[in-house]
Amino acid sequence: MTRKHTEVAVGILLRADGALLLSTRPAGKPYAGYWEFPGGKIEAGESVEQALRRELIEELGVTIGPAEVWKVTEHDYPHALVRLHWCKVHDWRGKFEMREGQTMAWQQWPLQVRPVLPGAYPVLQWLAEERGLAFDAAQFD
Ligand SMILES: Nc1nc2c([nH]c(=O)n2[C@@H]2O[C@H](COP(=O)(O)OP(=O)(O)OP(=O)(O)O)[C@@H](O)[C@H]2O)c(=O)[nH]1
């Protein structure tokens, strides 16, 4: 049987100094406590950008500026087959508030947080390559 994809919008918030934003998955969700990029499922009728803007308001209390899809990846978890639409975001407004009880951290390379959701490894690899850095996914298990 073919599994249906769950479409997900994910934001790579990049600060002017190059730091990127990661946050922990809230209690009660699969992989609770794992570090991830902010985002969530795309609802019927939403574009990736609209879903991402809504999710970041819901989770973090910030309103993002323009967001274009940079990469699309897939990951097959036991709980879902996900298709991740990754957007780099450079502009946002508002004050960060952890509205789902999560923890957030601005991370410079090399990243210090563990464990990271495996579905984010390919994008971490590309981001590291852009900076000429090595990335070893095994370190993030
Ligand atoms: N936000 C986010 N989701 C990711 C990342 N990597 C990754 O594999 N995913 C997967 O994408 C899916 C996102 O769903 P979610 O549960 O966070 O979305 P949501 O907030 O809309 O959930 P809900 O409405 O069911 O509570 C999960 O299966 C998650 O494992 C990532 O870096 N960020």
From TrEMBL:
Keyword DNA repair: yes
Protein name per Swiss-Prot or TrEMBL: 8-oxo-dGTP diphosphatase
Entry superkingdom: Bacteria
Pfam families membership: NUDIX (PF00293)
Swiss-Prot/TrEMBL keywords: DNA damage, DNA repair, DNA replication, Hydrolase, Magnesium, Metal-binding, Mutator protein
Annotated InterPro entries: MutT-like (IPR047127), Nudix_hydrolase (IPR020476), NUDIX_hydrolase-like_dom_sf (IPR015797), NUDIX_hydrolase_CS (IPR020084), NUDIX_hydrolase_dom (IPR000086)
Keyword Hydrolase in annotation: yes
Domain named Nudix hydrolase: residues: 5-129
Catalytic activity from the UniProt record: 8-oxo-dGTP + H2O = 8-oxo-dGMP + diphosphate + H(+); 8-oxo-GTP + H2O = 8-oxo-GMP + diphosphate + H(+)
Cofactor: Mg(2+)
EC number(s) reported in the record: 3.6.1.55
Organism of provenance: Diaphorobacter limosus
SUPFAM superfamilies: Nudix
Family affiliation: Belongs to the Nudix hydrolase family.
EC supergroup of this enzyme: hydrolase
